[in-house]
Amino acid sequence: MGSDHYFTAAPASPENLRTIDVTLAGRPVTVTTAGGVFSPDRLDAGTAVLFANMPPVPPGGNHLDLGAGWGPISLTMAMLAPHATIWAVDVNERALDLVRRNAESLGLDNINAVRPEDVPAEVSFRTIRSNPPIRVGKDILHDMLEHWIPRLDERSDAWLVVQRNLGADSLQRWIAATFQPGYSVFRAATGKGYRVLKVRRHGTPPTEPIALG
Predict the structure, then answer these.
(1) pTM of the prediction?
(2) Reading across the β-sheet that carries 183-191, which strands appear in turn?
(3) What residue ranges do the domains of the chain occupy?
(4) Contacts 24+ apart (CB under 8 A), 37-40
(5) Are the C-beta atoms of residues 158 and 131 closer than 8 Å to each other?
């Protein structure tokens, strides 16, 4: 498998557009994929584990799919929460084009497929759902998470699926050490060699004691 799709704006590999049949949000759909993006021939096993173990998508607000690829997570959230705004974020322009194609073909008008810098700074998220690009390396991955996790709304969660053999447990320890205080992380599920990590942003403690009585 080539790796240029993981952190490349313009993949060098041939586009090689193709369609595949998948089930998203309990609905059989046909989507367009291409070479140079993650898992172009099927729904990735990790994403399937995430779908099987994540809670319902919040019905409204802004939701983030970090490392969107051809869009399975974004499309699923958009179908499950038609009144929410889904931000499908990727550095790969080919991937963003595929998300837009697939959203249009499925009649979804609540997805913004954009590069990271095109998400307005004032936007915060009711949830983050992600199969993050682990193979970019720890430094880049940590930079990504340090940028996006603090943009969770208070009392909101990020759900990340990570392959156990690619450092899921060490990533959990890093998150626990990095996002303190005000956050918590735990392993919410395991399956098929993957971990599903839940990162919770808690409410901000009051700056003054609350009067009782």
Answers:
(1) 0.90
(2) 111-114, 85-89, 62-66, 125-130, 152-163, 194-201, 183-191
(3) 4-201
(4) 37/5, 37/11, 37/69, 37/70, 37/92, 37/94, 37/95, 37/98, 38/5, 38/6, 38/67, 38/69, 38/70, 38/95, 38/131, 38/133, 39/69, 39/70, 40/70
(5) no
Q: Residue 86 corresponds to which tokens in the numbers above?
A: 């889904």
Tokens of 97: 């084009």
Could you tell me if residue 137 is left (phi over 0), alpha (psi between -120 and 50 degrees) or otherwise beta?
left
Rounded average pLDDT over 125-138: 94
91/100 Cα distance (integer angstroms): 14
Q: What is the pLDDT of residue 33?
A: 97
Half-sphere exposure of 212 (CA within 13 A, CB side): 1
C-alpha to C-alpha distance for 185 and 172, rounded to whole angstroms: 7
Q: What is the pLDDT of residue 180?
A: 84
Calculate ∠ Cα 142-12-102, nearest 5°. 75
Q: Cβ contacts of residue 137 below 8 Å, gap of 6+?
A: none
Beta strand pairing call for 18-24 and 27-33:
antiparallel
Q: How far is residue 131's CA from residue 83's CA, in Å, rounded to a whole number?
A: 23
Evaluate whether 64 touches 130 at the Cβ level (below 8 Å). Answer: yes
User: Could you name the CATH architecture of 4-201?
Assistant: 3-Layer(aba) Sandwich (3.40)
Average pLDDT over residues 171-193: 96
What's at 129, amino acid-wise?
Answer: R
> Which residue do the tokens 């918590």 mark?
184
